[in-house]
Specification:
With 209 residues, the protein is mainly alpha-helical. The chain has one domain: Alpha/Beta hydrolase fold, catalytic domain (Rossmann fold), CATH 3.40.50.1820. The chain has a three-stranded parallel sheet. Helix 5 packs antiparallel against helix 6. GO terms for molecular function: hydrolase activity. Keywords: Hydrolase. This is Alpha/beta-Hydrolases superfamily protein.
C-alpha cells in the first residue's frame, strides 16, 4: 500500500465477514454467497471508481476445489467448531498457503477478529460453504468472459510461485492463448502482501502506467 499510495489514491478494504468490515449473521440480510460478494464489489466500484478499474486474477480451471485447509470449514459437522478456533481459522490458514514466518504482532491482527467475536467464525463457515457450492461455476464464467471477443480490457495475471494452495499447473495453458500477460513472483506465496509487498506494489505500479 505505501508503494501504491506514493502515486495513486490507494484504498484497502476487507471483504464483508473479514478483518475490520461488518460481519452480518448469515440468513439475516447477507448469506455470503458469491453473487452477493459480486454485487457488493460492484457497489464499491460504482461508488469509488466507476470509470476506471484494474483487476488482477490468480485462478484457473485447475483450482475448482477449495484447498483442504478451507474445505474443513464447510464440513457439515465440524465446520462451525473449526471456524470458532482462532488458531485454526487464522494462523493455520495463513501458514498453510505459503512460505510465511509471520511476526506475532502481525499474526495477531489476523487472529484478533476471531478472538473478540463469534461473528467472524460464522462468516468464515458461511463463505466456505458458498465457495464449495459455487466456485466451479464462477471459474467457468471467468473463463468464458476472458475468451470472449468482446473482452477488450487489458488483463495481467500475477502468480506467487510458492503458493501452496494454487499450483502453477495449467496457468500458462489457461491464459497463454488469451493474449494476457503473466507475471511470476518466484518467492511469493498465496498472500503475496505478507512477504513480497514492496515487490508486488512496484509490479502493480508498472502495470498501471
Amino acid at each position: 500500500m505505501p508503494v501504491l499510495a506514493d502515486k495513486y489514491h490507494a484504498i484497502a478494504f476487507d471483504w464483508l465477514g473479514f478483518g475490520f468490515s461488518d460481519k452480518p449473521q448469515p440468513k439475516y440480510g447477507f448469506d455470503y454467497t458469491l453473487d452477493e460478494y459480486t454485487s457488493s464489489l460492484e457497489f464499491l466500484v460504482n461508488a469509488v471508481a466507476p470509470d476506471k478499474l484494474s483487476i488482477v486474477v490468480q485462478i484457473t480451471d485447475k483450482h475448482l476445489n477449495l484447498p483442504s485447509t478451507l474445505a474443513s470449514f464447510s464440513n457439515f459437522l465440524l465446520g462451525e467448531i473449526f471456524s470458532q478456533d482462532p488458531l485454526r481459522a487464522s494462523d493455520k490458514v495463513l501458514t498453510s498457503c505459503g512460505p510465511y514466518m509471520m511476526k506475532e504482532e502481525d499474526a495477531m491482527v489476523y487472529r484478533r477478529p476471531y478472538l473478540v467475536s463469534g461473528s467472524s467464525g460464522f462468516a468464515l463457515n458461511a463463505i466456505s460453504k458458498a465457495m464449495k457450492k459455487d466456485l466451479k461455476a464462477y471459474i467457468e464464467s471467468m473463463r468464458s468472459i476472458l475468451r470472449s471477443s468482446s473482452w477488450k480490457t487489458k488483463t495481467t495475471v500475477c502468480w506467487g510461485m510458492r503458493d501452496r494452495w494454487l499450483s502453477y499447473d495449467g496457468v500458462e495453458d489457461f491464459f497463454g492463448g488469451l493474449n494476457q500477460k503473466i507475471v511470476e513472483l518466484p518467492m511469493a506465496g498465496h498472500h503475496v502482501q505478507e512477504d513480497r509487498g514492496e515487490e508486488l506494489g512496484n509490479i502493480i505500479k508498472s502495470i498501471l502506467r
